[in-house]
C-alpha cells in the first residue's frame, strides 16, 4: 500500500453535478478560463460562497447572467438537510445531516473559551473497525466529496451567523478515517484555509488519523501547517491490535517510525490521543509503558475519558485513576492534558447520534 492509494469509492459520481464547494480557488479559475470567463470572477464567486454564504447562484448579483447560468448548469451548491439538532448543557451542538443520497453524517459545534470549534465528518461510516467507536457500526458506505465536508462547516457557520459569531477552529475527528479519503481531505483543508474562502488559519485546524502509515508520510510531505494527531489508545502493539484492527496492517513500530519522520520533516508537534477504557489500558503500568514509547518525541498526550457507547462494552475509567495516569506521564516529563468533556449528555461521541437515529445505516 506504499505510494498513492486510490481513495475508496471515488469512482462514484452519483450521476449528478459536482459541488462547487469542492473546487479550490485555482481550480475555479481554471474552469472559468475554459469557459472563456475572466480569472477575477473566481474571487467574486468565493466571496458569494464563503463570505456572503448564499445558497443559490442566482443571488450572485455582480456576475453576468450568462456566467450564473453556466454555474447553474455545471455545479450545485451543496445543501445538507438537518435531521436532528441536539443542544448540550455546556453549549455543544450536535447535528445529524442528511446527504443527497439519503445517508446521514454528524457534525459537532463545540464552544470553548478561545472560540467555536467544529468537528467534521469525512466518510459515511468507517472501515477501520476500532472496537470502541460507534462510527464503525455498519462499516463504510462511501467517502464524502470535499464539498460535502466544506458544507458542514458552512452549515454550522450559518447557525453562528444568527449571533454574530464565527467558526474559529476545525477538527477533522468526526465519523470516518480522514486519511482513507485523502484527496478530498486535502481539497477541504485548502478551501477552508484560503483567505478568500473561510480563512480558517492552518494552525487552527487539526487532522486526526488512526494510523494509515503511507498517508502519514504523504501528509508530512505536503508542507502544510495543519495540526496533526494520532489516535494511539495503547502503549504496545498487542493491546493496540485488540483495540484497533488497523494496527494489524500498520503495527506500532511502523506507526512510530512514520511519526518520527513527520516530526523530523515538519518540525511540528504531534498529539497522541489516548482514550482511557476502564480496566483495559488505564493502569499505571500502561502509563509507564506509554511514557517509554514516546519519550524524547516532540509530542503532547491528550487523555480522553471515554463516552459510554451502548453498542460497545467499554466502561469509564474512575476519576481518581485518570489523574494517576496523568501524574505518571508528567513524572516522566511527558506533556499531557485531560480532554474536557463536552456534549456528554447529547451522545457526542462519534457515530452515537447516527447509530441511534438512523439504525438502517448502522446495520
From TrEMBL:
One Pfam family here: Radical_SAM
Compartments reported by the entry: Cytoplasm
Keyword Oxidoreductase among record annotations: no
Required cofactor(s): [4Fe-4S] cluster
Domain Radical SAM core: 112-345
Cofactor stoichiometry and binding remark: Binds 1 [4Fe-4S] cluster. The cluster is coordinated with 3 cysteines and an exchangeable S-adenosyl-L-methionine.
Active site: residue positions: 106 (proton acceptor), 350 (s-methylcysteine intermediate)
Keywords, comma-separated and alphabetical: 4Fe-4S, Cytoplasm, Disulfide bond, Iron, Iron-sulfur, Metal-binding, Methyltransferase, rRNA processing, S-adenosyl-L-methionine, Transferase, tRNA processing
Reactions catalysed: adenosine(37) in tRNA + 2 reduced [2Fe-2S]-[ferredoxin] + 2 S-adenosyl-L-methionine = 2-methyladenosine(37) in tRNA + 5'-deoxyadenosine + L-methionine + 2 oxidized [2Fe-2S]-[ferredoxin] + S-adenosyl-L-homocysteine; adenosine(2503) in 23S rRNA + 2 reduced [2Fe-2S]-[ferredoxin] + 2 S-adenosyl-L-methionine = 2-methyladenosine(2503) in 23S rRNA + 5'-deoxyadenosine + L-methionine + 2 oxidized [2Fe-2S]-[ferredoxin] + S-adenosyl-L-homocysteine
Source domain of life: Bacteria
GO MF annotation list: 4 iron, 4 sulfur cluster binding; metal ion binding; rRNA (adenine(2503)-C2-)-methyltransferase activity; rRNA binding; tRNA (adenine(37)-C2)-methyltransferase activity; tRNA binding
Keyword Ligase set for record: no
Residues that hold S-adenosyl-L-methionine according to the record: 176-177, 208, 231-233, 307
Binding site for [4Fe-4S] cluster: 126, 130, 133
Entry EC number(s): 2.1.1.192
Record-level GO cellular component terms: cytoplasm
Gene Ontology terms: biological process: rRNA base methylation; tRNA methylation
Miscellaneous: Reaction proceeds by a ping-pong mechanism involving intermediate methylation of a conserved cysteine residue.
PANTHER family: 23S RRNA METHYLTRANSFERASE (PTHR30544), RADICAL SAM CORE DOMAIN-CONTAINING PROTEIN (PTHR30544:SF5)
NCBIfam families in the cross-refs: rRNA_mod_RlmN
Record function comment: Specifically methylates position 2 of adenine 2503 in 23S rRNA and position 2 of adenine 37 in tRNAs.
Entry's family note: Belongs to the radical SAM superfamily. RlmN family.
Name this polypeptide is given: Probable dual-specificity RNA methyltransferase RlmN
Species: Calidifontibacillus erzurumensis
Gene encoding the protein: rlmN
